[in-house]
UniProtKB/TrEMBL annotation:
InterPro entries: CHP02231, DUF4139, DUF4140. It comes from the Eukaryota. Residues 18-120 form the DUF4140 domain. Residues 201-629 form the DUF4139 domain. Transmembrane segments: none annotated. This is Mucoidy inhibitor A. NCBIfam families: mucoidy inhibitor MuiA family protein.
C-alpha cells in the first residue's frame, strides 16, 4: 500500500519571513500545514527559487509524533528547459492561461446574448396583421422590450467583466515581463508519523541574488532663521532581489552578516622568515630554502644522485666537494672585503638596526652575490612559509600600520510586513526614524569659495549602528545636498553633513604680495623675499549671533631646501603644534592647525583655522601673513 502524497505549490503560499544578508544572499522561511497519516508520508513542494542552495535546506516543526526520514532538494531540469526567455515560472504562465480561458468564455456568452437579440428581432419581423390580432401584437411588443432590456444588461455586464479581465491580463503580462529569476526548485520530504496528526512543516533555505544597502535622509529645520539643534535621521534600506520568488506580505530582517555556505575553520598560522626585498640589489632566496643564523648564500647546485651508477656518483660527489671548497673561499674573501669597506665608512653611516637587533650581515654582504643556491624541491616541500621582505636601508623610516578589525554583526527588523517582488528593482523600506542632537557650525573657506556653509555634526545617541551609505539632506522640507556616511557610526560616535550655504552672512577675501630682491655680493647667491598678506572679513547680517564661526586658510609648504616659508601672522601659530589652540585675546578669537584626519591636514599641509563668535550685525576681520624666501634666480609660485 502506497503512502499518501501531499503536493504544495510554493507560489500559492506566502513566505513567512526573510532575512537578507550583505553577501547577496537571503534566508527564506516557509510554513506548510500538512495532514499526516499513520506511517510514511511523501510531501512534495514545487515552485521554489531556482537560486536555492540545495545544501542549505532545513526541515523542522514536526514535533515528537513525527520523524523525518528523507529530504531531497533539486532543480527541475524539465522545467528549466521549458522556461521562457524572460525567466517567468510556470505559475505566471498558468495564471495567464486561466485568464485567457476565462476571457474566451465571456466572449462566447456575449455572442450568445447578441444572437438572442438577433433571433427575437427576426421573429418579430415574421408577424403580420393577418395572423396576429392587435392584443397579441401588444403583448409581444411588451415581451420584446423586456427581453431586449435584459439582454442588453447582460451584454453590458459581460463587456465590463471582459474589460476587467483584460486589465488583469495586462497586469500579469507586465509582471511576467519584469520578473527576474525563475522558480524551478523542488523539495521532496518523507515523514513517518506514529498516528494521524497535522503538523506545521517549517522549510528554511538560503537563496542568492538578493541584497540590501542602507540609505538615509537627514531632516533639519530652522527656528526664526536659526538652524535647530535637533535633527531627524530617517534610516531606510533599499532591497532588491531576483530569486524568482515574490516576497509578499513578508516579515523582513536585514543583517550585516556575510552569510556563506562554505565550510569554515580556524585559520592556520604559518611560520615567518626574513627575506631581501625583490629588485633592491639583494639576491632572492627560494621560498623552500631556510637559512641558519650566520649562513651565507653561495653558488652551488645540488643534483639528485640516487639513480646514478656508483662510479658516477663518486665522481659527482668529488666535483661537488671541490666546488664547495672554492666557493666558500670566494665568499670568505668577499666577506673580508666588505668588512674592510665597512671600517672605512664614517661611524654615522652604519646600517640601521632591525627590529630584532643589528642588521644581519647576510643582507649587507649579499649585495656582492649574483647567483643563488638551488635546493632539491622534493626534499623541501615539508616546509610551508610566508615571506617577510627586507626593504633597502634608508636614513629615514616611516611607521607602517596594518589595521584589521573584527566585523560586527547587526540585524535590523523592518516594522510590519513588506512586499518585495522578484523584479531586480530597488524597493525602499523604513527601518527607523531617529531624533538626534546636532552641533551647528558656520564654516567658510574664502580662498576657494567666499560663502559660509552650515556644517551639522550629528551624534548617534540611538541603539542602531549606522552603516556606510548615502545621506540625502533635507532642510526646511527642501532638498539641499547629498552627502554620505563613509564609515560605520556606533552609539556615541558622530558624523558630519552640510546643510547648504548661509546667504545672510557675507564674506570678502583679499590677498596681496610684495617681493624684495637682495644682492649680497659676487660670491653669494641672490635672495628673494615675497611677503603674502591675506585679509578675510565676515559680516553677520542675522538677527542672532553666530556662536561658532570657523574660517579656514592655508599657508604654503616648501619641500625644496632653496625655499623657506616663515609664518608671521596669526601670532603664535608658527610655534603651536597639531591639536594646540592659540588664544589671540580678541573677544574669544582662537586659531590652530586643522585636525589631522587620515594623514591629511595640520602643520604637515599648512592648513589652519580661526574660531570666533560673531554678534548679530557685527563685522569681523582676520589676517594672515607669511614670507617666502628663496635663493637664486628661479621664480617660485604656489601650486
Amino acid at each position: 500500500m502506497t503512502s499518501p502524497s501531499h503536493i504544495f505549490k510554493a507560489s500559492e503560499h506566502a513566505i513567512k519571513s526573510v532575512t537578507v544578508f550583505k553577501s547577496s544572499k537571503a534566508e527564506a522561511v516557509r510554513v506548510f500545514t500538512v495532514p499526516l497519516k499513520k506511517g510514511q508520508n511523501k510531501v512534495q513542494i514545487t515552485d521554489l527559487s531556482s537560486s536555492i542552495d540545495t545544501r542549505s535546506l532545513r526541515v523542522s516543526g514536526l514535533g515528537g509524533a513525527a520523524r523525518l526520514f528523507d529530504v531531497v532538494c533539486t532543480l527541475d531540469s524539465s522545467a528549466l528547459s521549458a522556461v521562457a526567455p524572460s525567466g517567468q515560472g510556470d505559475t505566471s504562465t498558468e495564471k495567464l492561461r486561466t485568464m485567457y480561458a476565462r476571457r474566451q468564455a465571456l466572449e462566447s456568452e456575449k455572442q450568445i446574448r447578441e444572437k438572442e437579440t438577433e433571433l427575437l428581432l427576426k421573429y418579430g419581423q415574421t408577424l403580420s396583421g393577418e395572423h396576429v390580432n392587435p392584443g397579441q401584437m401588444s403583448t409581444f411588443l411588451d415581451q420584446y422590450v423586456t427581453r431586449g432590456q435584459k439582454t442588453l444588461e447582460s451584454i453590458t455586464q459581460l463587456e465590463e467583466k471582459i474589460a476587467d479581465i483584460d486589465q488583469l491580463i495586462k497586469s500579469e503580462e507586465y509582471k511576467v515581463s519584469i520578473r527576474k529569476g525563475s522558480a524551478n526548485g523542488r523539495v521532496d520530504v518523507v515523514i513517518s508519523a506514529d498516528d494521524d496528526i497535522s503538523v506545521d512543516l517549517k522549510l528554511t533555505y538560503i537563496v542568492s541574488n538578493a541584497e540590501w544597502k542602507p540609505v538615509y535622509e537627514l531632516h533639519a529645520s530652522a527656528d526664526n532663521g536659526k538652524p535647530s539643534s535637533s535633527v531627524s535621521l530617517h534610516y531606510r534600506a533599499r532591497i532588491s532581489q531576483e530569486t524568482g520568488e515574490d516576497w509578499n506580505n513578508t516579515s523582513l530582517t536585514l543583517s550585516t552578516i556575510a552569510a556563506g555556505t562554505t565550510a569554515k575553520s580556524v585559520p592556520e598560522l604559518k611560520r615567518r622568515r626574513i627575506l631581501p626585498k625583490a629588485n633592491q640589489g639583494y639576491p632572492t632566496i627560494p621560498q623552500q630554502m631556510s637559512l641558519q643564523p650566520g649562513e651565507f648564500i653561495v653558488d652551488m647546485q645540488l643534483q639528485p644522485t640516487q639513480y646514478l651508477p656508483q662510479q658516477q656518483h663518486h665522481q659527482r660527489q668529488l666535483q661537488y666537494q671541490q666546488q664547495q671548497a672554492a666557493q666558500q673561499q670566494q665568499v670568505a674573501q668577499q666577506h673580508q672585503a666588505f668588512q674592510q669597506l665597512q671600517q672605512q665608512q664614517p661611524q654615522n653611516a652604519t646600517l640601521p638596526a632591525g627590529p630584532y637587533g643589528a642588521y644581519q650581515a647576510v643582507a649587507a654582504n649579499s649585495r656582492t652575490l649574483s647567483q643563488k643556491r638551488q635546493y632539491n624541491e622534493d626534499s623541501l616541500m615539508e616546509d610551508d612559509y610566508d615571506t617577510l621582505e627586507i626593504e633597502q636601508p634608508s636614513s629615514i623610516t616611516e611607521n607602517k600600520t596594518i589595521v584589521s578589525e573584527t566585523p560586527i554583526a547587526v540585524s535590523f527588523s523592518v516594522h510590519g510586513e513588506s512586499t518585495i517582488p522578484s523584479d531586480g528593482v530597488e524597493h525602499q523600506v523604513s527601518v527607523a526614524e531617529l531624533p538626534f542632537a546636532a552641533k551647528i557650525s558656520y564654516i567658510t573657506v574664502p580662498r576657494v569659495d567666499p560663502r559660509v556653509f552650515l556644517q551639522c555634526e550629528v551624534t548617534n545617541s540611538s541603539e542602531y549602528r549606522l552603516l556606510p551609505g548615502p545621506v540625502t539632506v533635507i532642510f526646511d522640507d527642501s532638498y539641499v545636498s547629498t552627502s554620505s556616511i563613509d564609515k560605520a557610526i556606533s552609539t556615541g560616535d558622530s558624523f558630519e553633513c552640510t546643510l547648504g550655504d548661509d546667504p545672510s552672512t557675507q564674506v570678502s577675501y583679499t590677498r596681496s604680495s610684495k617681493t624684495v630682491k637682495s644682492n649680497t655680493g659676487a660670491f653669494s647667491e641672490n635672495t628673494n623675499t615675497t611677503t603674502y598678506t591675506t585679509k578675510i572679513s565676515v559680516h553677520n547680517k542675522h538677527q542672532f549671533p553666530i556662536s561658532r564661526l570657523i574660517i579656514r586658510e592655508a599657508v604654503p609648504v616648501a619641500n625644496d631646501k632653496r625655499v623657506r616659508v616663515i609664518l608671521r601672522k596669526p601670532e603664535g601659530l608658527a610655534e603651536a603644534k597639531d591639536g594646540q589652540v592659540v588664544n589671540l585675546k580678541d573677544n574669544g578669537l582662537c586659531v590652530g592647525w586643522t585636525k589631522v584626519v587620515d594623514g591629511s591636514g595640520g602643520t604637515k599641509e599648512g592648513k589652519f583655522e580661526w574660531t570666533w563668535n560673531v554678534n548679530s550685525g557685527a563685522k569681523v576681520m582676520v589676517e594672515a601673513e607669511w614670507d617666502v624666501k628663496s635663493t637664486g634666480d628661479n621664480e617660485w609660485i604656489e601650486g
